[in-house]
Design goal:
Distance between the termini: 121 Å
Radius of gyration: 51 Å
Largest sheet: 7 strands, mixed
Number of strands: 29
Helix content: 40-55%
């Protein structure tokens, strides 16, 4: 049964291949092709086909298992499938005769019969006989496939009789035929099928083939198949035909003549070759190797087919030819590139016709080799020719191989180059001659067509020589020049008439009357008439100028790249060593420094001693510092050396710092002089910014014996010199040391150098902004006109050449900081350098303490622009005028310069401003001291300027312009939030609860005593004791006073009553004791629960208010509160409620005017324009018209609402503002102050609990946190919804959590949630800021803060830990002490804030900013607690740390490096203080006087 189920085996046949065999005498010196035929049939692949098979064997090979002492070979078997699909297995035996390689006679075997009888045997037997593959197999059978003949015996089923029809090798065909005839007779006796295979038909002799066919025709049923084993033609056919004769059931194959079969086979090969070549052509790199390509292609069918047909060798040859073609093509292209580049190289090296006109090519080659640029154009190779070297692979090297120039092709290029220079020289000469001819023709005007001019130049020699195209090109160039000149003069004329354009606000649109006025004035100018034929261009220039005047930006500046803003940014970026990298890379870059180059400066061998000490502490010049190895390169320099400056400036050595060592007063003085010389040499003579900012470190050497008594004096003087030079001072450490220098000193000095390197890597942001106003004591704007004929570094040299100059903060690319001692204190002065067009927006909208107005004494337009700008500046702001020219001699030699300098000095005299001149040829006038008096004047008037600015801020609507001073989260300037809804657009009522005795903002002098955090919190810097009434003074509302009757005003909207309560909650006693002009709100409007000034997180907010309203006690000035950004701005700029009027009157006796009303020069210039366009009307009529336009308190488009021309005209030019009665004001103020004091004494203090913000009952908000969560949902649902909404829709919102949302929307969110906890915030269509405000309000309403009060002290103590890692681990332990509910919610909200901070590049909310916004909400500050108040900054830094290290605290992550960790680290306690060079001022946390460096006593020795 099992046998029946087995599949039947395919039939097996054994075929014996026979033919002429024997010795060389019998068969000639080559066989008849039996072996090749068997080889091709059994292993048809080209790689397995061996054309050579020998029959001459050694005795050993003959006795091997392959031959096995037999005269036949077993070739193996192959399975074939016929056309009918029936398979069969064919075993192939080759009958041959092996010859002994010694005797050249047939080997003796077991069968001693002659070949003819042996070949006809039908039974073959040979035990363990192996399959034959090739001759190389003999003796190495183990290296080839070992397959045995089946069962050691085979029965022959048919014979394949081979007849060689080629021209035999020493063999007669007749003898072969005779042998075959005898063999056939013997074979036929076996009764087995026989087929004749005519072999080697590819070398066929025709009559041999015919004889074979004739031989076969004489035999019965004998078939001849014409074959070629070499080309694999009909090989398979002959075996298949024989099988069919043995098995009649098979289909009879068609016998195809050799030529037809050959054509078919060759067509197959050609097709496969084409496909393979296409595959190979996909390789485009001539460096590719066959091994790599074959591995990639081995599975491709086209590749496999070609390999089977032609073999790997041919495939590799094909590939090699292709690679060679690619290489030659590459070389050809490179040669073409070189030849094409040769003319450019010749133009570079041999551009002078006079040098090469008579030189041969070989002489020219020698001349080129001497040129300095030769190496940049040509390369001399060691090996030649160039196309056989690896230079062909250097694609990026465009230099021409020098040996290529020896070719005739290169010489021809040279000859063409010489001829081209000759013809070009002549052509240029004639074109220039023709150009001069055109310049002599006076009547050619801008825009005149060529056709009108050609008739006047027809006879010109140059015109006849050059082509028409050249003549038109020269005329076009001439036209461009005169047109460009005319346009420049026209543009210059427009700037000279700047007053005509700069009398409108920014972003305005000139009316038709204004345009008519402009044309009427300009049409009288010759420069206006010069563009008569180019009227459209002239109109376009005028409109472009007007457009720029009303919408000025840096990008649209008419001076292009000569814009003052662009040039200033570029100069400051280079001069202040600020690199354009992100701040995040600052410490990364400096951390990569592994080699430190140091100069050591000392006297009397002290420098060498310090260098030796450092080398003693080093190992092979490698120094270990803070866990890192630095390679030190030390260069000791003796301070007395006459070659001191030469030694410092070496191209091969760029120092990172300089150690200056001293051990006596004399050496300290000498060191100070040397540093001064070095800095002067670097900044003024060599202009080496790198060396000018080289960090110096003063090191005091240890004293011995009697000299040690001078150590305190040396220490003191060294510290003072370090402060003056703005460099670190390294003192001698406490204790006794035998050596002059201690390891601690050296390490400290090295750290100082590395810190200085970090500082020098600070960044420059491309945006011209001033982001942190609290950094500077004074803000000065220097204005200069774009295109003035002086370099920017000239006007900045008084600052940049000063050692007290440093870079402004990142982002302030047009600003610098000066540290100057003005009066008795060191002041930080921020100088912002702007063009006049950028300064206009600053003048109108920003707080500026003073202006430095620069103009060129060589340019009328520069003075015109200055006049136009100065006319609109308020006369409370000090001004310094600076005239720039080459030298003082210009004043006497040039009338135009004299006139402009005189005019500038005259204007300065009229307006009581400072005037000075800068001379490009003089160094003295570039010193910073030129502006010292001006800075002092500005400092004196600082309070008045800021009060005036605050008043103006309440009157005027902010206009959008180029934001030169954008508001910073840390800034103290006002942020104007425009209303988003009708509810938010309400203005103040006819009366205000804010009387004149209450100031919304402290004066600048007050603010200098406070430090501002990111929410605008103020806290005192100095620790001044508070008196016992501070609590009452700061937390109680002033007593209600009955309001005076006021005249009703139209269109006045009432202020939200809740807003009045909020303002009243922050009102305290007025320190300035000014008389009350407007009473506070009535008694019944005051909620007794609201008499606390709380952080805005816990009280009601109005849209018109900013996010921060804080009450903070001051030291001794009795100043009460700061309500920042609390002015409600009407969207249309209306100020009809009298609010701003009261504010302005509370700050001074008169309203500020403008300088144009103080200077007759400025006023008369503006008046002259007015008269020229209104010549038919009188001045009084003109001003009456102006008065009509400004009726009421509406802000006009041209003037301050308080300073309309009609008012100022009545008051005179010098005093345009209306003054008030000071004596009356003083009396009112005294009465008001006394009344307020009496009322405040009656007030009672209240507990800490914050006032309830809501005006509705809620069963959710204000509830304990434990009541709002479950173990399954540990996060309150409202918090979850708000966070999800913010992260889904507004994570990148600018000012998230800082910008307050709509108060009504916040209340609606909570009310709707109270009614339905499943409410969707998305469906409510509220803003992200409203949701953020509602979320903060949720935490503010909790009965207890999220961070328990019990842990506040622990947090405070932990934050003082010096080691960062230890501090963070301690904080982590404190967090674990939270109640589980508080912990889960705190973790959730801190994780959310961390995600917000990660988007700081778009929302501008860093962890620092977020912590300032959130710490009062999370910690519920107790502002009545004096101790808590003094540590607000520390608590804020704790929240910042939680946000930054969120992953560490809650998710077991790694500690991350914060962008700026200085804010949250305790002060250093080491005794040796390092004075960092040029670092922006870092104000200390409040009430920590130990952080404030004490001032040094006076210099007893007088060396500084």
């Amino acid at each position: 049964m099992m046998a029946k189920n087995k599949e039947p085996r395919p039939p097996s046949y054994a075929i014996s291949v026979v033919g002429l065999s024997g010795t060389e005498k019998d068969k000639g010196n080559c066989g008849v092709g039996k072996s090749c035929l068997c080889n091709r049939f059994i292993r048809s692949k080209a790689d397995e086909y061996y054309p050579e098979h020998t029959s001459v064997l050694s005795t050993i090979d003959f006795g091997g298992r392959v031959v096995n002492n037999d005269h036949f070979l077993y070739w193996g078997d192959v399975t074939q499938s016929g056309e009918d699909g029936i398979e069969c297995r064919i075993h192939v035996i080759e009958q041959t005769e092996f010859i002994d390689d010694q005797t050249f006679l047939p080997h003796r075997s077991t069968n001693l019969q002659p070949y003819i009888k042996r070949a006809a045997a039908s039974k073959l037997q040979s035990a363990e006989k192996l399959m034959y593959i090739c001759t190389d197999q003999l003796g190495l059978e183990q290296d080839f496939e070992q397959k045995q003949m089946p069962e050691g015996k085979l029965s022959i089923d048919g014979f394949l009789l081979c007849i060689d029809v080629s021209q035999g090798c020493n063999r007669k065909f007749d003898d072969q035929l005779k042998f075959v005839n005898n063999l056939y007779i013997q074979l036929s006796k076996s009764k087995k099928p026989i087929i004749i295979a005519a072999t080697k038909c590819d070398e066929c002799v025709d009559h041999y083939l015919r004889e074979v066919q004739a031989f076969a025709s004489n035999k019965k049923n004998l078939v001849v198949v014409e074959t070629s084993a070499r080309f694999n033609v009909n090989v398979e056919t002959c075996f298949t035909a024989l099988v069919q004769m043995m098995d009649k059931t098979r289909g009879k194959p068609k016998i195809i003549p050799y030529l037809d079969a050959y054509k078919t086979q060759r067509q197959l090969v050609v097709t496969a070759t084409d496909k393979f070549e296409k595959l190979v052509q996909t390789v485009r790199d001539y460096h590719a190797t066959w091994k790599t390509v074959s591995n990639k292609l081995k599975n491709h069918p086209d590749y496999e087919e070609y390999i089977n047909l032609e073999g790997t060798k041919k495939a590799k040859n094909t590939f090699s030819r292709h690679i060679e073609q690619l290489k030659q093509e590459h070389i050809r292209k490179r040669r073409e590139e070189y030849i094409n580049a040769l003319p450019r190289a010749l133009n570079t090296l041999l551009s002078n016709l006079d040098e090469i006109e008579h030189l041969s090519w070989s002489e020219a080659l020698k001349l080129m080799e001497k040129r300095p640029d030769f190496q940049s154009c040509f390369v001399v190779l060691e090996k030649t020719p160039w196309d056989e070297t690896d230079h062909i692979d250097k694609v990026n090297d465009r230099r021409i191989p020098f040996d290529l120039l020896t070719t005739l092709e290169a010489e021809k290029v040279y000859q063409n180059h010489v001829q081209h220079l000759i013809s070009e020289k002549r052509r240029v000469e004639m074109k220039e001659k023709f150009k001069k001819t055109l310049e002599k023709i006076q009547f050619i005007s801008p825009g005149q067509p060529w056709e009108e001019v050609i008739c006047f130049v027809m006879e010109d020699e140059a015109f006849k020589y050059i082509t028409d195209a050249d003549s038109k090109e020269v005329y076009s160039r001439h036209q461009r020049e005169i047109v460009e000149k005319a346009k420049e003069e026209f543009q210059e004329m427009l700037f000279e008439h700047s007053e005509l354009f700069y009398d409108l606000d920014l972003n305005a649109t000139p009316s038709s009357d204004k345009m008519s006025e402009i044309h009427a004035v300009l049409s009288e100018e010759p420069r206006y008439k010069a563009l008569q034929k180019l009227a459209p261009d002239r109109e376009s220039l005028l409109l472009k100028h007007i457009g720029f005047v009303y919408h000025p930006t840096k990008e649209t500046c008419l001076s292009g790249q000569n814009c003052m803003d662009i040039k200033v940014e570029q100069l400051l970026a280079n001069s202040l060593l600020q690199l354009d990298h992100g701040r995040s890379n600052l410490y990364h870059d400096s951390a990569n420094i592994d080699k430190v180059n140091l100069f050591i400066l000392g006297k009397d061998g002290l420098a060498q001693e310090l260098a030796n000490e450092i080398r003693t502490q080093s190992t092979d010049d490698e120094y270990a510092l803070d866990g890192k190895i630095y390679e030190l390169d030390l260069r000791p320099v003796d301070a007395k050396s006459p070659y001191l400056l030469t030694q410092l400036w070496t191209s091969a050595f760029k120092p990172h710092g300089c150690f200056c060592v001293f051990n006596s007063i004399e050496s300290l003085n000498f060191i100070g002089e040397c540093i001064g010389k070095i800095r002067t040499e670097a900044s003024q003579i060599r202009r080496d910014k790198y060396m000018a900012n080289l960090p110096f470190t003063l090191i005091l050497a240890n004293q011995r014996d009697s000299i040690s008594k001078n150590l305190p004096i040396l220490r003191h003087q060294g510290q003072q010199l370090a402060n003056k030079l703005q460099c670190p001072f390294v003192d001698v450490p406490a204790g006794t040391y035998p050596r002059k220098f201690n390891e601690t000193q050296i390490k400290q000095a090295l750290r100082g150098v590395l810190e200085a390197v970090k500082h020098n890597f600070d960044v420059v942001s491309p945006v011209p902004t001033i982001k942190d106003l609290s950094e500077a004591d004074l803000r000065i704007v220097m204005c200069a006109m774009c295109g003035d004929p002086f370099s920017v570094d000239l006007i900045l040299s008084p600052f940049l050449d000063s050692h007290s100059c440093s870079a402004a903060q990142a982002g302030q690319s047009n600003s610098l900081m000066l540290d100057k001692i003005i009066g008795e204190k060191r002041r930080r002065i921020q100088i912002t350098i702007l063009s006049y067009h950028s300064s206009i927006g600053v003048r109108k909208d920003e707080l500026v303490h003073g202006y430095i107005l620069v103009y060129s004494a060589k340019r009328k337009a520069s003075m015109g622009m200055l006049r136009a700008f100065l006319s609109e500046v308020q006369d409370t702001i000090p001004v310094q005028l600076v005239a720039v020219t080459d030298s003082q001699a210009d004043f006497f030699e040039n009338e135009a310069i004299k006139e402009l300098m005189t005019e500038g000095e005259h204007i300065a005299t009229e307006i009581t401003a400072k005037f000075t001149a800068l001379y490009s040829l003089s160094q003295y006038h570039r010193q910073t001291e030129v502006f010292t008096l001006f800075f002092s004047d500005v400092l004196e008037k600082k309070n008045m300027i800021e009060n005036s600015y605050m008043s103006d801020s309440t009157r005027e609507t902010t206009h959008t312009s180029e934001d030169v001073f954008p508001r910073s989260p840390r800034g103290s300037s006002l942020d104007y939030n425009y209303p988003d809804s009708e509810d938010d657009a309400e203005g103040p009522p006819p009366y205000s609860p804010i009387g004149d005795d209450v100031r919304l903002l402290p004066t600048p002098s007050d603010r200098s005593k406070y430090r501002l955090d990111l929410e605008g919190n103020e806290y005192p810097i100095h620790s001044t004791p508070l008196n016992c009434h501070d609590h009452e003074r700061n937390h109680k509302v002033p007593p209600p006073i009955k309001p005076k009757p006021l005249v009703p005003k139209t269109n006045v909207k009432k202020l939200d009553p809740n807003l009045l309560k909020t303002i009243e909650a922050g009102i305290g006693k007025n320190p300035r004791k000014q008389p009350s002009r407007v009473p506070t709100a009535p008694q019944e409007d005051i909620d007794q629960s609201d008499n606390y000034a709380e952080p805005i997180d816990t009280i009601f907010k109005h849209k018109g208010f900013a996010d921060d309203i804080y009450a903070v006690p001051d030291d001794s000035q009795n100043r009460i509160i700061k309500v920042r950004n609390s002015i409600v701005i009407n969207a249309q700029g209306d100020e009809e409620n009298g609010y701003s009027d009261r504010i302005s009157r509370s700050h001074g006796e008169r309203r500020p005017s403008k300088y144009k009303y103080k200077s007759k020069t400025l006023f008369s210039k503006a008046k002259s324009y007015y008269r020229r366009t209104h010549s038919d009307a009188s001045d009084d009529e003109a001003f009456t018209t102006s008065k009509t336009k400004r009726k009421g308190r509406h802000r006009g488009s041209e003037e301050d609402p308080l300073l309309s021309p009609v008012e100022t005209w009545k008051g005179g030019i010098d005093n345009p503002a209306i003054t008030s009665d000071q004596e009356s004001d003083d009396k009112k103020m005294k009465k008001k102050t006394q009344k307020v004091k009496e009322e405040k004494k009656k007030k009672k203090t209240k507990a800490l609990n914050p006032p309830i913000r809501r005006n509705w009952e809620s069963n959710y908000f204000g509830m304990p946190l434990q009541d709002l969560v479950t173990p399954e949902k540990p996060i309150p649902l409202f918090v979850e919804k708000c966070v999800q909404f913010i992260e889904d829709t507004g994570l990148c919102t600018e000012g998230l959590y800082r910008v307050s949302g709509n108060k009504t929307d916040q209340d609606n969110i909570q009310k709707q949630f109270d009614q339905d906890h499943n409410i969707s915030l998305e469906s409510m269509e509220v803003t992200v800021n409203a949701v953020a405000g509602a979320l903060k309000a949720f935490f503010a309403d909790l009965p207890d803060p999220l961070i328990p009060y019990s842990l506040h002290q622990e947090l405070l103590e932990t934050s003082k830990i010096l080691d960062k890692t230890e501090r963070l681990h301690e904080l982590k332990e404190i967090v674990k002490k939270f109640h589980p509910v508080n912990y889960d919610v705190f973790k959730y909200i801190i994780t959310h804030l961390n995600r917000v901070s990660q988007q700081y590049k778009t929302n501008f909310m860093t962890a620092d900013n977020l912590s300032i916004c959130f710490w009062p909400t999370l910690m519920r500050p107790d502002f009545e607690n004096r101790a808590f108040l003094s540590t607000t900054k520390i608590h804020q830094s704790v929240i910042e740390t939680f946000i930054q290290q969120c992953q560490f605290f809650f998710y077991n992550g790694e500690i991350v490096e914060a962008p700026n960790t200085l804010a949250c680290q305790p002060p250093p306690s080491n005794t040796v203080q390092m004075v960092e060079s040029m670092v922006p001022l870092q104000l200390p946390p409040p009430l920590q006087p130990q952080l404030i460096q004490p001032q040094l006593p006076a210099d007893p020795l007088g060396i500084i």
